[in-house]
Write a structure and sequence with these properties.
The structure holds two protein chains of two kinds.
Chain A lengths: L4 E3 L2 E4 L5 E6 L6 E8 L3 E9 L2 E5 L6 E5 L5 E5 L8 E8 L9 E2 L3 E5 L1
Parallel strand pairs in A: 2-11
Antiparallel strand pairs in A: 1-3, 3-8, 4-5, 4-9, 5-6, 7-8, 9-10, 9-11
Chain B lengths: L2 E3 L4 E5 L4 E3 L2 E3 L5 E7 L5 E7 L5 E3 L5 E5 L4 E6 L8 E8 L9 E2 L3 E6 L1
Parallel strand pairs in B: 2-12
Antiparallel strand pairs in B: 1-4, 3-9, 5-6, 5-10, 7-8, 8-9, 10-11, 10-12
The chains are: A mainly beta, B mainly beta.
Chain lengths: 114, 115
């Protein structure tokens, strides 16, 4: 069974641009969560999608948005990039059926904003 | 609001020595608690989890953790550390309030293993 796949692996953008990151969950998983990881803040929860609906949301500005498709693949978009958006963005998938589930993480997309 | 505190940002141990990584949580009800490990350039992998039952939980790679409600702690232990354990370790708490998969992670403890 293939794991969680995130593309691209690395991205370099400049301030003011927008970016779209992609996440393909494990086959059969309907929940996709997104996290921002920075050295000083650890992992910060962005949002979770389940069956194409946003089910949970963290405390990030509206510049951060996401969506999920009928095949459970998810995209995350960041508009008007700021230097502070430089981070490793991780997605995790699970069946989404229970609260104590193991999360399966992708290797992440490293975003650098110049 | 749920939160996790990992007081040690960086820990160095000798190979073969015992290890304890500290984790304190804040959560209004019975928490679901996790330890994940992240090797360089990789995503996170679950080591173990607790949500009910026996307060001493066994995980993969010889790790164990003990849930102590009175101390709001969920410390990770290993009796003999291997060089391959060098990685960043994250404690996390989740639960039913606020939804299914809103897991809150600690800032992480970076483990260095010296020969």
């Amino acid at each position: 069974k293939a794991g969680v796949t995130q593309t691209p692996r690395y991205l370099i953008k400049t301030r003011g641009q927008q970016v779209t990151l992609s996440c393909s969950p494990i086959s059969g998983h309907r929940s996709v969560s997104w996290y921002q990881q920075t050295p000083g803040q650890g992992l910060q929860f962005l949002f979770e999608y389940f069956s194409e609906t946003q089910r949970n949301k963290g405390n990030f500005p509206g510049r951060f948005s996401g969506r999920q498709f009928s095949n459970s693949r998810s995209e995350m978009n960041v508009s008007t990039l700021e230097l502070g958006d430089s981070a490793l963005y991780l997605c995790a998938s699970s069946t989404g059926q229970t609260t104590n589930e193991k999360l399966f993480f992708g290797s992440g997309t490293q975003l650098s904003v110049l | 609001a749920q939160s996790v505190t990992q007081p040690d940002i960086h820990i160095t141990v000798s190979e073969g020595a015992s290890l304890e990584l500290r984790c304190n949580y804040s959560y209004g009800a019975t928490p679901y608690l996790f330890w994940y490990v992240q090797s360089p350039g990789q995503g996170l992998q679950l080591l173990l989890k607790y949500f009910s039952g026996d307060t001493l939980v066994q995980g993969i790679k010889g790790f164990e953790a003990e849930f102590k409600r009175s101390q709001s702690s969920f410390n990770l232990r290993k009796p003999s550390v291997h060089w391959s354990d060098a990685a960043e370790h994250f404690c996390a708490v989740g639960g039913s309030s606020g939804g299914y998969q809103k897991v809150t992670f600690g800032i992480g403890t970076k483990l260095q293993v010296i020969p």
